[in-house]
Amino acid sequence: MMTLYRGDWANYRTTGVLEHNGMRYSLRATTTSDWDDIADIWHSSASLPGVGPVSMPSRDELRSRLDPEFAAGWFVMLAVCEGTTVGFVAMKRSEAVLAELFVRPDAVGNGIGRKLLEEAQAEMPTGFTLFTRTANVRARRFYEDNGLRAIKEGFHPRSGDPVVYYRWESGFS
After folding, report:
1. What Cα–Cα distance (Å) separates residue 164 from each residue in 25, 77, 116, 167?
2. Among residues 64, 9, 23, which one has the least CA distance to residue 42?
3. CA distance 75 to 17
4. 64-77 pLDDT, tens per residue?
5. Over the range 61-75, which residues count as b (16 or more CB within 10 Å of their CB) and which as e?
6. What is d(CA 58, CA 36) in angstroms, rounded to the nearest whole number?
7. For FRET with 113, which of 41, 60, 81, 139 sits at 20 to 30 Å CA-CA?
8. Single pTM value for the model
9. End-to-end alpha-carbon separation of the chain, Å?
10. What pairs with residue 133 in β-bridges?
């Protein structure tokens, strides 16, 4: 996967498609046919050291969580490159929560996470909260570099791992 630069995304909002060195990137809403891709990305990304829990759920366990998450109100946007899903952001818009944001490990550092975060900001323009594991230094730096404020510490509702809660509000950065 090639490296994208922030400026390469400049016309994305207008066209909906990014062309970079002959490759096309786009964001789109998910369909049920994308759920296996979401589970694959979620598992491969969360399995990286310092990202997910020590006892990481299997890919199939994560996949089985998707049905109830979507039924409970998840809205998911995908980042797609040349027909391959490379990232996703899951939101609970009615609760103003960014639930998950993951990029395939081989696509990290290409600006895809930033575009997915911007999509969440556009979908929830009055603000939202999220949490990430305290040990996930890369994610914490990413959120802080993109204008989110740490607001409290707590514990992950499933694993009990320490987490940091973040808040994004329009106009704050």
Report:
1. 31, 24, 20, 10
2. 64
3. 20
4. 999 999 999 999 99
5. ebbeebeebbeeebb
6. 13
7. 60
8. 0.85
9. 30
10. 163
